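The instructor's notes for this session suggest beginning with a concrete chain rather than abstract definitions. Hand out the sequence below and ask the class to guess, before any prediction is shown, which regions might be ordered.
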Amino acid sequence: MNDSTLLLSREDTKKCIDMRACLEVVEQVFRAPGQGNGGMPPNLHLKMHPGAGWINAMPAYLVPQNAAGLKWVGGWEKNREKGLPYIMAETILIDAETGFLKSVMEGGYITDLRTGAATGIAAKYLAKKNSKTAAIIGAGAQGRMQLRALYQLFDLEEVRVADVSPQASRDFAKEMQDELEISIRETKDPQQTVFEADIIVTATTANEILIKQGWVSKGAFIASIGSYPEIDPQIILSSNKIIVDSWEQSKHRGELSRLVQEGKIGEENIYGEVGEIVAGTKSGREAKDEIIIACLIGLGSHDIGCAHHVYKEAQKRRLGQTFSFQQST
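After discussion, reveal the predicted structure:
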């Protein structure tokens, strides 16, 4: 038995997985729990002292891949002042049969990539098939990943972007238009951004309502990926379907948490989880005029699925460095 652990940097990881591959992994992993082929407890959430940040421990076991591991991820509010990313993450991958530590890899890139891919797969099953217009609220790194995923799956004709920073919107529009060669228009406010949009994504760190009742057209698919509520509760409560990636996690974090705490929404109001829809145990979009909302907190199983893919690719390409934490017996 090889007693070495493979250490992979962010650059190593980027060489081993792109958005197209990530979409395939995420779709496969979404399908696994719906077929009884995965294990993933709710995230363990740790709040740091005020002004510091938060940490999540996200374990998962994937039966089809025989892959198990954990992502340790946190958001650190003052990191930008220090020249560091807001999100810091590491992923460990173990041998599911022995517990041997197979790999430790930088987890931030996979986090960014699979978060975009999760929205892409949700949209594949829940947005209108002929969706042409996408609205992105939040012009940061995650807004870019969201668009990259949607671009792989839809023949988009127009993308609109809004951000609290006009310069961020301008940079996003220029960079992503050059990268994807599609029309991207910066808008002054979220109302203009979401007007008659087929697909709407909120990708910010805001803790305030960004999309209000009356702004959203019939047939829209809305994906909320933030840690806090960003959508008018009346939009959620009057929508045709509310979808989550994990109900257990959505009760405590993200778009629905406040409504749950206020007793305005419960499990009986949730149409289903994305995995059930991908697995075919529940229907996705059933009518063109449905307003469907997907509240996506993020699944550790996606991180482990992607880490498994990266590990296999890194071995093929002979990337990374090895380190022996313990000798085999």
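Then share the key points. The first strand starts at residue 5 and ends at 8. The first helix runs from residue 10 to 16.
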